Amino acid sequence: MRQKELRIGLVCYGGVSLAVYMHGVTKEVWNLARASRGFHADEANSTGVAAEYRRLLDMLADKHELRLRVIPDIFSGASAGGINAVFLAQAVYSGRSLEPLTELWLNNADIDRLTAEDARMGWRFAKLWAQPLANFVLRRPGNLVSESVAPETREEVREKVSKLVRGRWFQPPFSGEAMSKMLLDALEAMDGALADGPLLPPGHPIDLYVPTTDFHGYLSTLRLHSPPIVQESEHRMPIGFTARTPEVSGAWLADPLELAFAARATASFPGAFPPLQVGEIDKLADEAGREWRNRDAFLRRIMPAHCDNGSADGVSLIDGSVLVNRPFEGAIEALRGRPAVREVERRFAYIDPRPDRYIRDEDKAHAPVGFFENIFGSISTLPREQPIRDNLELISEESLHAERLQTMIVKLRPEVEAAVEKLFDRTVFFDRPTLRRLANWRGKAQQAAATQAGYTFAGYAELKFAGILERVADLVRQAAPKNEGELDTHIVAARLRTEMHDRGLTSLVATGAGASEEAIAFFRSFDLAFRIRRLRLLARRTARDWEADPDIPNEALDRAREAIYQILSIYFERDGVKPLGSDFTPIAGNVMEDPGAVLDHVAKVRDLATLDTLAEEALVGALGEMPRELRRRMMYAYLGFPFYDVATLPILGMRGMNEFEPVKVDRISPEDATAIRKGGTAATLRGIEFYDFGAFFSRAYRENDYLWGRLHGCERMVDMVLSTSDHPISFDERRDILRRAFLAIIEEEREAERCAGGLLNALAVEIEAKLMA
Questions:
Q1: Burial 376-400 (b: 16+ CB within 10 A, else e)
Q2: I need a surface site. Which of 260, 261, 587, 627 has the fewest CB within 10 A?
Q3: Tens digit of pLDDT for each residue in 372-420?
Q4: How far apart are CA 643 and CA 662, in angstroms?
Q5: What is the distance of C-alpha 201 from the center of its chain?
Q6: The pLDDT value given to residue 653
Q7: CB-based contact 18:354 (threshold 8 Å)
């Protein structure tokens, strides 16, 4: 049976109160991932909408011969969308419930709950003189409430706005401390909820990216030709978290105080919430009785320049969407270097509650721009609403490059396999590899590939050499103290190159052909990436090329993939700066004076020779359990890798054979989910009223938008899953799948008793009417 992973990178926009709608969407991503985990663990069927997703996955396996695993593993969000990204990432990582965030949005995301105590009216006659002003603003003909709020809610909105007008002036009306406490309470409630187990395979990487804005900024060094160094202000301050999925449930992606910090910082909407300062989270930790164990390390990681000059406590962080409302960049960066052990279909899905805001009004398009319209559009609206065209074009270019590469590898394969077969066709005991034999055969294949590459080997070797030095230089940059600013990786790499030259590595190529002895020694000690690329080739072959072969049992392929993944983990554990230990910090800081100490420490700690022995012992054991045909193919792929690498690395660059697949982009919006109701945002969402603040003024609005978020998210999840199959389904089949899933959502919410019965009944009637056969 064909196996595939649907990997989802989710991007949540800033959208003020429309974050409630986005939460509904993210809840369906969570439910689909839960169903997928249960499907692959052969657990008993889930309940509710998760059971319908499980039925969908069963249908693909039974009718389409496709065993699909859904893996949401990259999360990025700005402003209130960042809150949703933080909580979804924690739920996926830990296996905990997302329900506490639902309660937060529905119960607490209200003007009355968010308003700071000292911003409320002290008594009923507070600022009584301001009431006429409030009445004029809120009730005059053409007022903003009448223009932007539905008639049945206008009085509720007017009353709450009037309280704000008669409360504190010239300071943010909402409490930052209260918001931080709400976020931490919701995170802790997740910790107390029942756990399914992590929703991703053990060891799979998960990334969370949350942009924030440093209001005052800091000076960042840029290197130019002339003058050689300049300083420019930098205000972007992204907060990122990355980890590998644990085997047991309940783990924290990061300290909950740090997750609350990130969520609170990115959602500090200017004028509504005060900027976040570190002291607010310190106070929260004291009041909650929590020890912020890694406080200093966390702050140094996200704001090293401020930590160096002692100003970290005074940093003011405001809404991440001020500069990055559509945080694709962090999600794209997280894509690089992810392992792939079976066929992967990578998607970037972005949630846009208001795509209708881009509809061009031809009358206004040719009218003169007003004075205030010009000012506010330039400083706020345009920067926040800048389209994502540049990001999508980058993804498109990467995808086109991936498709070309795949075509090249397919064309190259017959020649590589012929070269390997010629090299080993007379080898005795080739079908019975031992650790010693495999090591000898590997060395023979690598030397043959280098020799047969001819003059192109010099370029290949230089690319590998430069890539390794740049990687070590980046590890130095990460580890070195920042007392005198951040090290330049290019300068460090040049210093490391000089050190290797002084040690005798004057040429990468031998006099005759192939690699020089000095180059071989260097690559054996430092080329971790080569080992990982080689194993990924095996994973790709077992995932795609051999699955349809009737001579190879599916069970044998599954065991082979699991073995390769375990072997890969041996090398992954030594990658990155963390395995180098705290002893590496002073060594890295002294790199310009003693670069040899850096190289010696990296080589000693990684100890690739020992890792090679462990990895090949495991590989030999796995080969011994394989059927003869599969074992022989695995041997040819493993030993043939140097031939592939010489040909493909100059095209791949240092990205290597990781998750290098074309990336597809899906939008999730009311405009794209029309199975129940057409008309898009205006026909379904209420939070768009009062300039997208509407849901903060009405519980009924929040319930409406949350439910439509779930329904729209469900429809788009079903369509994404169905699109992974090469066999289309009929209109009637899709309709029936959606109908069952939609009604399951309605019944879930009816049992939870958190949404009005009238709203649920009306939606159920509409679903039945629209989707009945």
A1: eeeeeeeebbeebeebeeebeebbe
A2: 627
A3: 455 445 445 545 555 566 667 777 776 777 677 777 777 878 888 888 8
A4: 24
A5: 16
A6: 64
A7: yes
Mean pLDDT of the chain: 85
Q: How far apart are CA 647 and CA 456, in angstroms?
A: 9
Mean pLDDT of 214-218: 90
Q: Are strands 213-223 and 317-318 parallel, antiparallel or unpaired?
A: antiparallel
Q: Is the omega angle on the peptide bond into residue 227 within 30 degrees of 0, that is, cis?
A: yes
How far is the C-alpha of 597 from the C-alpha of 586, rounded, in Å?
10
Q: pTM of the full predicted structure?
A: 0.80
Q: Which one is predicted more confidently, 323 or 119?
A: 323
The dihedral formed by the CA atoms of 658, 242, 469 and 653, expressed in degrees to the nearest 10: 30
| CA 47-352-327 angle, 5° bins | 105
**Pairing mode of beta strands 229-236, 343-351:** unpaired
Q: Which SS3 state, helix, strand or coil, does residue 212 take?
A: coil
Q: Three-state SS for 484?
A: coil
CA distance 239 to 89: 14
Rg (CA), the chain: 29
Q: Are 571 and 611 in contact (CB under 8 A)?
A: yes
Q: Residue 487 and residue 479: Cα distance in Å, rounded? A: 10
Name the helix (H) or strand (E) containing 18.
Answer: none
The β-bridge partners of 678 are none
Give 604: exposed, middle or buried? Use CB within 10 Å, 0-12, 13-18, 19+: exposed
Direct distance between the N- and C-terminal alpha carbons of the chain, in angstroms, rounded to an integer: 32
Alpha-carbon distance of 620 to 617, in angstroms, equals 5
Complete DSSP assignment for 420-462: HHHHHTT-TTTTS--HHHHHHHHHHHHHHHHHHTTTHHHHHHH
Mean of pLDDT values over 176-196 = 88
What are 84-110's pLDDT values in tens digits? Answer: 999 999 999 999 999 999 999 999 988
Residue 494: burial class (beta carbons within 10 Å; 0-12, 13-18, 19+): middle
> What H or E segment, with its residue span, contains residue 491?
helix 489-502
Q: Are 650 and 460 contacting, i.e. CB atoms less than 8 angstroms apart?
A: yes
Mean pLDDT within 154-175: 61
* Burial 529-549, CB ≥16 within 10 A → b, else e: bbbbbbbbbbbbbbbbebbee
> How far is it, in rounded angstroms, from Cα 39 to Cα 614?
33
Take residue 659 and report the two structure tokens written for it: 């998750």
What mean pLDDT is predicted for residues 528-551?
A: 79
In the block, which residue shows the tokens 């809840």? 27
- The H or E element spanning position 28 is helix 19-40
DSSP 115: B
Tens digit of each residue's pLDDT (9 = 90 or more) over 128-154: 444 454 454 455 445 455 555 566 666
pLDDT at 174: 79
